[in-house]
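ok posting inputs for the beta-D-glucopyranose job
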Amino acid sequence: MRADGYTGVTDAQHTLRRRDVLRAAAMVAAGVAFAPPADAAARISALIAAMTLEEKAGQLSCFNDEIRPVGAVFNPVVAARGAAAMLDDIRAGRVGMLFNGYGVAGARRAQEAALESRLRIPLVFAADVIHGCRTIFPIPLAEAAAFDPALSERAARAVARETAAGGIHWTFAPMVDVARDQRWGRVAEGAGEDVLLGSRLAAARVRGFQGGDLCRADAVLATPKHFVGYGAVRGGMEYAAVDMSDAELRETHLPPFAAAFAAGAGATIASFTDFNGIPVTANRHLLTDVLRGELAFAGVCVSDYDADRELIAHGVAADEPDAARHAILAGIDMSMQSGLYVRHLPALVRAGRVPVEAVDQAVRRVLALKEALGLFDDPFRSLDAGVETRATATPAIKALAREVATRSIVLLRNDGELLPLPRAGRRIALIGPFGADTANLNGPWSFAGDPRAGVDLATGLRAAMADAGALTVEAGCAVDADLPGGVERAVAAAHRADVVLLAIGEGGDMSGEGNSRVSITVPAAQQRLAEAVAATGKPVVVLLRHGRALALEGAVRDAPALLATWFLGEQTGHAVADVLFGRVEPTGRLPVSFPFATGQQPWSYDRRATGRPAPADAPMAPGRSHWRDAPDAALYPFGSGLGYTRFRLTDLNVPARIAIGAAVPVAVRVTNVGARRGTTLVRADIHDRVASRTQPVRRMKAFRHVTLDPGASSIVTLPIMARDLTIITARGDRAVEPGMFDVIVALGDQAPLVASFEAVARGSAGTG
Ligand code: BGC
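and the output
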């Protein structure tokens, strides 16, 4: 054992100079994150040489912030000790990071305690800022419906500014798990089922959070999570095991992480789950060979909450020391909440069961991260009470939250052009448990949100209507229970109205972590309400609230107008009114497929074909792939969504041949054939017809919005990059295999145009 005692490093030696910090930040922005410049690295080495094993284990440990608690958070209470004991631990060098606290004053107290520790290493403050900090934005799944990386980047930038103003340096976001099973509650936190959309949004959110220069006071370190495969838990059951082929890992689940790391993300959280029999927290292949080796990730890998200790429950560790040993050797740099590293790492090293080099390497990464954030230079960065007051809940961020919310809404059905509604001259009955309710606007993860800021539907609608008195509001039932006389009152209100808005769906606590559902339907009491209201014969517009795709039934499925409105955050009422009355056109598209029935899960549009696919015009043909009681298709597949005008695609143009290694220039004419100006999303998917491994029936490779006046048309180009044609071959390498490819160009869920090209070895492409 070497150099564990104090060797007298001076303050000057471990106070990193601004220049070095800026250099580190520039490297982060360039995607070579967290390799400190040479002299800074030398100072980190000097610091490591000065640290005791106990201090090293302290830097590798993070805990729920009990100094500035925010009330109920999702996680179970583990190792709670109270603010005073936590401050003592910080002074003793036993804490490297605190998470899920909010507010500058408490953070300053904690940082002052850290600066009283022997080596004066500053704390870093993290939090689960998943869709807004003080100002709550739509859940990430909703935001994904905008299909707009630039919008997501803008949102993440604004959220980062507000987060940093509240004394937080690091967010445990974005969640980039690809999720194809809507029973899993955490679908709400990610970008849905598609690899390309997930990857683009992952990178955009990282850029937005980190802002290109991590040591700026308004930059927030990003944490693409959960590495890796969590979205594929068996049966959609929370925390369950994952079994996955290597090709599926590489083609579907790794790309969003690769994109986020390439955008400079400096941290990740390991998945809680078992992966092919080895829980990720103990999985050296994933956390070291793949994460560090293949993806060249140089930042900090944090365990999930108590996940190192959970290795005992998984049955791969005998006891706490064994669990800590597994985790550090696999590649977990920081232990979250269990306290296992503080309690056991020093003894494990002294006993020769963990090499000190493994500990030092993790400490080096954590210190490099603190350096990249500029914390050695200014431990009180982002801890300014004046900024906290000025830069939170500003009119600008609220306007952006409203814009993102309107862009998240997806119009799924609009029979007879029932929508948009006129602002005057209609009596409207707003029926359902979410009509006048602010408790269910946000969905999961909104711990620091201002509860008084939420705009419910009734408030938003009244503000937009010419005559607010034309709106009546009736709950009809509770989220999951009947109300005495509720349905009768709702039916009476419907009879008195010209149009019914039915605000139904999931309660705010029905999705998110720990909220797997065996049946992803509208709760029974609300379904009964919907049937009774539909029986009045009045036109019904369903305003669906949800944190996942739902399997719609009966009167909800069959309503003439249907809007997917997710959990839109504090500006819900205004955003829904904007779209209902046509101030804003609905432009969202589904980032997850809505199935016919729960039993179809897991389901995604980019499945591989069966040997006996059902013909499109006979989905229930005997002896073909379908269920007895549902087709092998989605009710509203990925990408579905309408606007208030109509578009037509013509003139798809794709070269007949391309040389492998070249991009494929796809062009198509889009015409607005409706009567209103509007925006649509054009997308290009490909299908590799014959390959050494079976390929998805289609997979999106490019997408783009186009805005046109009535009657106008435009040629839209959708370049498919050379890399987009690569597959994981039967041999396990990544390559383009020569042969025929189909290009499928579509708008929403309309019938697509299809063209094909041949990919040929370079030199034999000829003229295409
Ligand atoms: C979740 C993480 C989260 C962590 C800290 C865990 O239960 O899986 O996503 O970042 O808690 O709150």
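notes: The radius of gyration is 27 Å. The domain at 15-388 is CATH 3.20.20.300 (TIM Barrel).
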